[in-house]
Design a protein that fits this description.
Elements lengths: L22 H4 L26 H11 L14 H13 L6 H13 L6 H13 L3 H10 L5 H13 L3 H13 L6 H14 L4 H12 L7 H15 L2 H10 L5 H13 L3 H14 L9 H11 L6 H15 L5 H13 L3 H10 L5 H13 L3 H11 L7 H11 L5 H17 L2 H4 L1 H13 L3 H10 L5 H13 L3 H13 L6 H14 L2 H14 L5 H13 L3 H10 L5 H12 L5 H14 L5 H14 L2 H13 L6 H13 L3 H11 L5 H13 L3 H14 L5 H14 L2 H13 L6 H13 L3 H10 L5 H13 L3 H13 L6 H14 L2 H13 L7 H13 L3 H9 L7 H13 L5 H14 L4 H13 L3 H13 L8 E6 L2 E6 L8 H17 L15 H9 L2 H10 L7 E5 L5 H14 L3 E4 L4 E5 L2 E2 L6
Helix pairs in contact: 4-5, 5-6, 5-7, 6-7, 7-8, 7-9, 8-9, 9-10, 9-11, 11-12, 11-13, 12-13, 13-14, 13-15, 14-15, 15-16, 15-17, 16-17, 17-18, 17-19, 18-19, 19-20, 19-21, 20-21, 21-22, 21-24, 22-24, 24-25, 24-26, 25-26, 26-27, 26-28, 27-28, 28-29, 28-30, 29-30, 30-31, 30-32, 31-32, 32-33, ...
């Protein structure tokens, strides 16, 4: 098999030339990596060569058994011998291209072209300078090769990252009939290790071949084999079995196996092996060295609970052993302490190191970046870049530091400087990680356009490039761009990582694209990434954000493990849904039972759930748990507690928490307190809080004003609302679209639709809420034509209507009797705008038919509804029957029966039923309705009216004689009655819903609360419009009387009842008597 090696060109080196044999000559320095454990942190040191001259000579002889005798044709002259020895000695450690060229010429000149030894030496030089093309070419041209030749080339490919070429070369070696030596085995196994999962199959085959050779127990090869199994298979068991088969374990063997467990994050096993190493090496030379400590420091950082303690112990041990100044150990310690935020300790170790390099500098920079101290990391780079040989990773870390600058603009400026440098020097095209770093840096500095530009110009992209780009687009709010990039990535053939899927799912959540999200969910299942807890958390958020709670729970149940984010996501999703709030509480209990630590997000979510339930005791128990976890001083949790207690009516607790917060208060704290006061009908306190905020110089945001304006609108306090408006102008928030929409709503609900209209026209920008508020305002005031015209303008401005818009439009049609137009708009919801009508829209149509007197059409409309009518529908039906003077009593009876079944404790249902019977003078049925009301033990809400004057709010009920000015009020009322009768007023006794004499009915009607209110206002001297609020619907008689009064006194009267506004002026009402 080896006969072809016996050619005249092959020169066997005689034993007298043994000095020319050296490890560095025949075996390249790259082989030294076979003797050390492969630790990612070890970039600073190589083991010195371990082979002796005799070992190398034996290796060479064993690979060439046919050359045991000197061929006579290979005798060298004395001159040639000296030249040969000179060449072997002169170039054995060469590392320059000029030396390679020179040796090549001398080999050719001196007739050594076919000499294997010198050719191997030349291949080694090519390998050292990274010129694998020339090394491969020389290899192919060699007429004779030995196992060392093959080993040289395989090692060269491996050390230069050409793992595929190394594996192919090893296969060729086997096919050529050569038995690999331990260098070839080691290099091939290392190539398999660097190839990851794809190299595992060949690695196992090499192991099989190795077990049949005499190198099966070789320490060097066994060490590499351990590393290969640890990296490729992720199986410490296989690596440990190889370790156990090593007969004589050296310190290198122990370091290798400890390194495997360290890299897998199994710190306990790593330290147990270290303990065994010390026991077995007692009295021998198995002392831990720098590589042992380096692996143990890496392992210590993996411990979840005791990392810092172990790290400090390792520091003491290292200091005692004298390895603190070692480059490898020092770099690991710097990286470890920096990782845990102990930057001062890391800096101290860094300064004590006798020698520093890019690895130690990078470790310190990484720690600073993780602590959001980007400026300091950049400063370390600036100071050390001329003192250590910075590598490409240094630029990647430097770029990441700019994203952590406190001033993002400064970070971006510095990033551009580095970008220019790496572009000018061509570094950006050498290492793809630099391009990835630029993409990531620009994205985090809010320069997404620059990020996209860098990504587009990258020559080579990997999965990290795509993940960085997608994450950047997602974080900057370019959700569609992120999803599009994900699709392009898949078309490019890249397999998404867990980080890619997380960012893409986040974008789908933000867009509400559930269909695409479900497709990506399928992708995660195919890739097996659904088992990744972070990916599953992203799926939880997707389904939670899009309202698919059942799918959300299914994903949670299928998760193999949970973390804080998992529990918080499911609790938060359920807490936001009114139908699933109790489920949220159950999951909260499950999280506590699981033993996981509760954090601020957990508490905020569960407090929100308790708030939705208005369950005071539950909230108090949660508050207790918050105190137990020492989380009561967290501003966000305190804000949630204020909101909870405010909703539960415990305003005293709100005030206690708020007063204790002091300097921790933010805008949410103030807004929560104001909302609590408003919820508990303490508007004066809410307004005082606003003034207090302004006096303290506290910033008032748009939500503060919107909340207070909403409260002013709910109780129709125009003066207070105008004061808040003035405050918003002082706070420069008048042009804010949220505040503007709230002002329109407030003015329209307080009777000043003219102010609302004027402000609407002056708004610089409008959203759907602005349009809806104005349309509803016009409808509420009976300006149906204006409301519908505004709706047409809304569509012309490109603002698509929503469900609320159509409630306003249908109400406008109802208030002015536009039945046909109302039905057209109702139909357009589904036909034109693809909006499914909701119960509120069906109620508006029923009201439309009722006001138009189309009682007979109501029942047919209800029967065609796609859903069962609810309380709102039946109450609207019953109200329509009341206005119809008792016509279609059967429908009214049906509506009354349904209401008393669905809501038996609501007095309004009985009152409406009684009024329907009374309007048709069915007094027996009236009596039955009132008996049913007494049996249900419910009380009717007393009708009242109120007016706001300079001296406060004055409230009146029918026949009220408790007011201090009752005498002047009744005197003025008597005067008004006389003048009204003179003007032609006749009391409409049909609205006195009692079976009494006509005179008694007239007396009852004359003392209605709204008439007392208007009489009281007229006792004061003023020419301003009279504004009266009423909690119930105004009766027909009072409506008629107010028309007369407005003409008699010559003043406008604005009356707001429970349904709408009536503007009485000069004997006419804005409703046109259609109400």
């Amino acid at each position: 098999m080896f006969r072809w090696l016996l050619t005249p060109t092959h020169k066997r080196i005689p034993n007298s030339l043994s000095p020319a044999f050296s490890t560095s000559t025949v075996v390249p320095p790259q082989y030294s990596s076979l003797f050390k454990p492969q630790n990612p942190a070890d970039q600073s040191r190589q083991f010195p060569p371990q082979l002796t001259l005799r070992n190398l000579g034996d290796t060479y002889k064993s690979s060439q058994p046919q050359l045991s005798a000197k061929p006579s044709s290979l005798h060298l002259t004395c001159f040639n011998s000296e030249t040969y020895e000179f060449l072997a000695s002169r170039y054995r450690d060469s590392r320059s291209s000029s030396d390679a060229e020179e040796l090549n010429l001398r080999i050719l000149k001196n007739g050594f072209a076919g000499d294997v030894f010198l050719s191997n030496t030349l291949i080694n030089i090519y390998v050292r300078i990274g010129d694998l093309v020339s090394a491969g070419k020389l290899f192919e041209e060699m007429p004779a090769r030995n196992s060392v030749t093959w080993a040289c080339l395989i090692s060269g490919y491996t050390q230069n990252g050409m793992t595929n070429e190394a594996c192919l070369c090893f296969k060729r070696m086997i096919r050529a009939g050569f038995l690999p030596n331990h260098y070839a085995f080691g290099s091939a196994l290392r190539a398999c290790q660097y190839s990851g999962q794809s190299g595992l199959k060949l690695g196992v085959q090499i192991h099989g071949l190795l077990s049949k050779s005499r190198y099966s127990s070789d320490v060097v090869v066994s060490n590499v084999l351990m590393s290969m199994y640890g990296s490729c298979l992720g199986s410490t068991g296989d690596a440990h079995r190889v370790f156990d088969e090593v007969e004589i374990k050296s310190s290198i063997s122990w370091n290798s196996i400890i390194s495997v467990f360290s890299q897998r994050g199994d710190a306990v096993s790593a330290f147990e092996l270290f303990s065994d190493m010390q026991k077995e090496g007692f009295g021998f030379s198995l002392k831990p060295n720098e590589f042992t400590y380096g692996s143990l420091i890496t392992a210590a950082c993996c411990m979840s609970d005791y990392s810092l303690s172990l790290l400090e112990q390792m520091l003491s041990r290292v200091t005692k052993s004298g390895f603190l100044q070692d480059l490898y150990v020092g770099s690991a310690l710097v990286s470890g302490f920096a990782r845990f935020g102990l930057i001062n300790s890391a800096k101290k170790i860094f300064e004590q190191m006798g020698e520093r390099n890019s690895v130690s500098m990078n470790g310190l920079m990484v720690g600073l970046v993780r602590q959001k101290r980007g400026e300091e990391a950049a400063e370390v780079f600036a100071k050390m870049k001329d003192l250590v040989g910075i590598n490409l990773d240094s630029y990647v870390i430097l770029l990441s530091s700019f994203a952590e600058f406190s001033d993002s603009e400064e970070g971006k400026r510095k990033g551009k400087e580095v970008h220019a440098h790496v572009t000018r020097t061509g570094l950006v095209d050498i290492k793809v990680a630099i391009g990835n770093g630029l993409v990531n840096m620009y994205a985090k500095c809010n320069a997404i356009a620059n990020s996209c530009s860098v990504f587009r110009l990258m020559i080579d992209k990997d999965s990290v490039s795509w993940s960085s780009m997608i994450a950047g687009l997602d974080q900057n709010g370019y959700f569609e761009g992120a999803v599009t990039s994900f699709c392009e990535m898949r078309r490019s053939g890249f397999v998404p990582s867990n980080f890619t899927l997380i960012s893409t799912l986040s974008s789908c959540s933000s867009l509400g694209w559930i269909m695409l999200g479900q497709q990506i969910h399928c992708e995660t299942l195919k890739l097996g990434l659904d088992l990744d807890v972070s990916v599953s958390n992203a799926l939880l958020m997707l389904y939670a954000e899009t309202g698919y709670l059942n799918e959300c729970q299914k994903v949670f149940f299928l998760m193999p493990e949970y973390d804080q984010v998992s529990w918080n996501s499911i609790i938060g999703a359920l807490a936001e849904s009114d139908a699933s709030v109790l489920e949220a509480v159950k999951y909260f209990m499950g999280m506590m039972q699981s033993g996981l630590t509760l954090n601020r997000v957990t508490f905020i979510n569960i407090i929100a759930a308790a708030s939705s339930l208005s369950h005071c005791k539950l909230g108090q128990q949660i508050h207790t748990v918050v105190l137990k976890y020492h989380a009561a001083d967290d501003c966000a949790i305190e804000n949630a507690l204020i909101a909870f207690y405010g909703k539960c009516g415990a305003i005293d607790n709100c005030e206690k928490i708020f007063s204790r917060m002091d300097e921790r208060r933010d805008e949410v704290s103030w807004n929560s307190m104001i909302s609590g006061y408003i919820h508990n009908e303490l508007l004066p306190k809410a307004m005082d809080m606003v003034w207090f905020m302004m006096q303290r110089g506290q910033r008032l945001d748009c939500f503060t004003f919107a909340t207070v304006l909403s409260a002013c609108a709910s109780v129709a306090t125009l003066e207070r609302g105008m004061e808040v408006h003035a405050c918003s102008i002082r706070a420069c928030l008048e042009s804010d679209v949220v505040v503007g929409s709230a002002l329109i709503d407030m003015y329209s609900k307080c009777g000043r639709v003219d102010y609302a209209s004027r402000f609407f026209k002056l708004m610089p920008s409008r959203n759907v809420y602005s349009w809806n508020s104005m349309i509803s305002g016009y409808a509420r005031h009976g300006h149906g034509d204006k409301a519908l015209k505004l709706f047409e303008r809304m569509k012309l401005h490109g603002q698509p209507p929503d469900h609320v818009t159509f409630v306003g439009v249908l109400s406008a049609c109802s208030h002015v009797g536009l039945v046909d137009a109302g039905f057209e708009h109702f139909k357009s919801m589904s036909d034109v705008y693809k909006l499914a009508p909701q119960m509120e829209h069906y109620s508006c149509v029923v009201d439309l038919l009722g006001r138009a007197g189309e009682i007979n059409k109501i029942e047919n409309f209800i029967n065609k509804m796609p859903m069962e009518p609810n309380i709102l529908i039946w109450r609207t039906v019953l109200g329509a029957c009341c206005r119809a003077n008792g016509r279609n009593t059967d429908l009214g009876r049906r509506a009354g029966k349904m209401l008393t079944e669905l809501e038996p404790q609501n007095a309004v249902n009985y009152v409406l039923l009684s009024n329907m019977y009374a309007s048709g003078e069915k007094w027996e049925d009236v009596a039955k309705a009132r008996i049913a009301m007494r049996k249900a033990a419910v009380k009717k809400e007393a009708g009242c009216s109120w007016v706001t004057m300079k001296d406060g709010v004055h409230v009146f009920v029918a026949g009220d004689k408790s007011h201090p000015e009752k005498e002047s009020i009744y005197k003025k009322l008597k005067e008004l009655n006389r003048k009204m009768r003179d003007a032609g007023y006749v009391p409409e006794t049909k609205y006195a819903l009692y079976d009494l004499e006509v005179e008694t009915k007239e007396e009852l009607l004359s003392y209605h609360s709204e008439k007392l209110a208007v009489a009281f206002v007229l006792t004061r001297k003023s020419e301003l419009p009279i504004r009266i609020m009423k909690n119930l619907r105004v009766c027909g008689d009072c409506h008629s009387a107010f028309k007369y009064i407005s003409k008699i006194v010559g003043r406008q009267i604005v009356l707001r009842d429970s349904n709408r506004f009536h503007h009485f002026d000069d004997g006419k009402c804005s409703c046109g008597d259609y109400w």
